[in-house]
Sequence to fold (74 residues):
Amino acid sequence: RRDRHGVPVDVPVQGGMPTRVKCLHVLVAHSLAVGPGVNPFGDEALALLTDWARKGPCVDPDDPDAMPGKKTRS
Fold:
């Protein structure tokens, strides 16, 4: 599919270019979306991630400053 659109002009854009690597978060997101075995680079990056969510939320959900406009729980 990609080749049918030709090679993009080498200008800075999101997602990498033929001579540059895509951002790891893009590779991981793609692997999560399509499942294992489709994107080996994304699968590898995903396997190397630590389970950061195991430690709990990144912010206190009851802190009104954590998310602007969010009301605290009652």
